Amino acid sequence: MHLLVTGGCGFIGSNFIQHMLASHEDVVIVNLDKLTYAGNRRNLAEEEALHLGRRYHFVHGDICDQELVPELMKRFVFDAVLNFAAESHVDRSISDPFPFVTTNVLGTQNLLEAARRAEIPRFVHISTDEVYGTLGPTGQFTEDTPLAPNSPYSASKASSDLLARAYFHTYGMPVMVTRCSNNYGPYQFPEKLIPLVYLKASRSEPIPVYGDGQNVRDWIYVMDHCRGVEATLFKGQPGAVYNFGGDAERTNLEVVRLILRLTGKSEDLITHVTDRPGHDRRYAMAFARSTADLGWTPQHSFEDGMARTLAWYKANEAWLDEVQSGAYRQFMDNWYRTRQA
Is-catalytic flag, 249? Predict the structure, then answer.
């Protein structure tokens, strides 16, 4: 089975590639990644050492490239496209929305059109619960909840979801959309809450918490999400949307306090800062459809997933240091030059 995975050097994409290569001996993956600041080829160094040129191929490129993407579709006979590529940090989208619209909207459209012309049998578009907007103190998002995005990031993802829907209804393309709650786990770029708090706690630095810290998120361990995307690939119905959640609602303050407790640090490090504009108050995901149609449920509790995540960061402090300093880019350049020599 030949798969085109876009954004495979990012946090979720690299975990998905690791999982698929380890779980399916007949899978061949082409990873198309632009290598923005959040794309780290070192995440897949082991996979490349084992499978490069055979079961795994890396292509440095942009999903917006209207020549490269169709050329890849012709060069490889893909059984499916899985679109993980996205600009994904809300704060960055508030500062500069343009890259989010470019990659998340125009890039998705370019992929969809190239896949349509190449008659790719399956297309899985990975999205987010943020397209649904915000919830009050009760209730959950279902796949039928109207889209009501509140940030430039979530608006760009909602737009890409609607393009996927349009390609299914207009052209009959076998497109499926997945929406997940907040991911956490190994290889997450440290601009996101959990790795950022871990880093600051490990250095006994002040930990900024937006507003009153009572914003609620449903947290899903990244490998549970990857299993959901895998199930969608093999069992999903064209045109369907599937939600994946961790059944683990926590306030931001609860998450920070748990990390401080697990790292043995004082809550005195918590510093409340001015809330960001348009900050959604609460997300919560219902995933009954995914359970019924795909046989999927999360396998990791929040406490178990968090313990695994912090243990990984502790065992991989060199990875964190290189990501913080930017040295990971030089490391991979040298690593590939050595292999090619």
Answer: no
Return the biggest CA–CA distance within the chain.
Answer: 59
Check: CB of residue 293 under 8 Å from CB of residue 235.
yes
Catalytic pick among 129, 230, 249, 280: 129
What is the full per-residue pLDDT of the chain (341 aa) written as tens digits? Answer: 999 999 999 999 999 999 999 999 999 999 999 999 889 999 999 999 998 889 999 999 999 999 999 999 999 999 999 999 999 889 899 999 999 999 999 999 999 999 999 999 999 999 999 999 999 999 999 999 999 999 999 999 999 999 999 999 999 999 999 999 999 999 998 888 999 999 999 999 999 999 999 999 999 999 999 999 999 999 999 999 999 999 999 999 999 999 999 999 999 999 999 998 989 999 999 999 999 999 999 999 999 999 999 999 999 988 888 888 766 565 445 544 544 44
Q: Is 198 inside any structural domain?
A: no
Which residues share a beta bridge with 30? 4, 57
Q: Is 87 a catalytic residue?
A: no
CATH of the domain at 111: 3.40.50.720
Query: What distance in Å separates the CA atoms of residue 257 and residue 193, rounded to the nearest whole number?
Result: 12
Instruction: Answer yes or no: 267 catalytic.
Output: no
Residue 290 resides in a domain? yes
Given 48, 130, 280, 322, the catalytic residue? 130
Q: Is 24 exposed, middle or buried, given 0-12, 13-18 or 19+ CB atoms closer than 10 A?
A: middle
d(CA 6, CA 8): 5
129: phi then psi, degrees, rounded to nearest 5: -70, -15
From the list 153, 167, 283, 328, the catalytic residue is: 153
Q: Which pTM was predicted?
A: 0.93
Range of the domain at 183: 2-187+221-247+279-300+328-340
Write out the two tokens for 68: 């490269």
Domain count, the chain: 1
Question: CB-based burial of residue 70 (10 Å sphere; 0-12 exposed, 13-18 middle, 19+ buried)?
Answer: middle
Backbone angles phi, psi at 236, to 5 degrees: -65, 150
Tell me if 107 is assigned to some domain: yes
Which helix or strand (DSSP H or E) is residue 286 part of?
A: none
